[in-house]
Amino acid sequence: MLLLVDPWDAYTDWWPAVRARMHHEPDPPAWSIDLGNLFDRLLRVIWAMAAAVAGVLILATFYWWPLWWLILLVPVALGLVGYTVAGRSLPAVRALIVMTGQIAALFPGTALVRAFNVKALPGGHVQAP
Question: What is the pTM of this model?
Answer without folding.
Answer: 0.60
